[in-house]
Amino acid sequence: MKVNEEYAALALYGGAESEIEVLQWLDYSSVFFERLGRSIDTVGIAGTRFSGKPMGYAAARKKLESIGPMEADAIELYCTLPNYRQLAFGWQVAANLDLKSSTVVFSFRMSLLGRVDALQMAQEVFHSLEALCSYQYGIFYKMPLSQGPALYAYGLSAGLGYDEASMKRGDEIAQWLHRREEFQDGKLRDVYNLNILTDRQIESDLDGQSLGDWIRSTRERGLLEPFGTSRHVWHSIDQNIAEVRKVLSEHGVLIATSTANAQAK
User: Fold this and answer.
1) Residue whose C-alpha is closest to residue 18's, from 70, 57, 94
2) Angstrom distance (rounded) from CA 82 to CA 97
3) pLDDT at residue 264, rounded to an integer
4) What is d(CA 101, CA 73) in angstroms, rounded to the nearest whole number?
């Protein structure tokens, strides 16, 4: 497998730590892997009462049940590639749960989907996870494995160059690491093919018009529909994302392209 192979990932943010059902998330993750024709073979658990050493799924679940799932700070699940050298680039399906930042991430090789539509699957996962982690904000994106699709969810980057465009891209990604809480004030991290937004986010002001009304005013900006409780799903259109991103950036709505002191108008 090549590190430039395309991967997809979906990330969920903002659920209260006390509302995350860890063992149910483990069960769901196992089913998610199986749906892609794979199984969990490597688990890492971080926390003061855990060693952090990789282990198998059965052993990890037993340890979580024994010590207590809420004693973990973070859990990583992988289906690894044969003879991998670095785990960071040696997996084909991954699921990550960070209880301290209330972040959930699922990442996978696009080729594993076969004929299954990636966006449809992502939306189904967002629906399924409502009862497990009470998240507020969600995104779905694609990128090469070499650029760290799971790392991106946390505001970290990999595999970028040192030219001006790459440095700018790295800075945009890192904004989320330092300013993620701003989504609760109505900002979006960036514009993606699939965005799960809060009421506060779609009420962001664009020169007297709410973001929700702005999206609905023309088909070129995609489709915005209700999604679960107090959330909305925005399907943006690939060929129009750059223009949509430009407008939202100019209004200070995007965390990726605004400064720490900029406020949405």
Assistant:
1) 70
2) 24
3) 38
4) 9
261 pLDDT higher than 80 = no
What is the pairing mode between strands 103-109 and 137-144? unpaired
pLDDT digits (tens, 9 = 90+) for 193-204: 999 999 999 999
96, 45 in Cβ contact below 8 A? Answer: no
For the chain, the C-alpha Rg in angstroms (whole number) is 18
Residue 74 burial (CB count, 10 A): 17
Question: Taking the model in full, what pTM does it have?
Answer: 0.92
Closest CA to 153 of 7, 4, 11: 11
Distances (CA, A) of 115 to 28, 111, 143, 196: 22, 9, 19, 24
16 confidence band (pLDDT: 50, 70, 90): low
Q: Where are the domains of the chain?
A: 6-143, 164-250
Decide: 126 and 32 in contact? Cβ < 8 Å.
no
| CATH code matching the domain that covers 6-143, chosen among 1.20.120, 3.60.90, 3.90.1010, 3.40.50 | 3.60.90
**Secondary structure (3-state) at 49:** coil
Let me know: does 250 contact 207? Beta carbons within 8 Å.
no
Please write the tens of the pLDDT for every residue from 210-219: 999 999 999 9
- Do residues 94 and 123 touch, judged by C-beta distance below 8 A? no
Instruction: Report how far residue 89's alpha carbon sits from residue 142's, in angstroms, rounded to the nearest whole number.
Output: 15
φ and ψ of 43, to 5 deg: -130, 135
d(CA 55, CA 77): 10
Nearest 5 degrees, angle CA 208-CA 190-CA 148? 175
Tokens matching residue 211: 């973001």
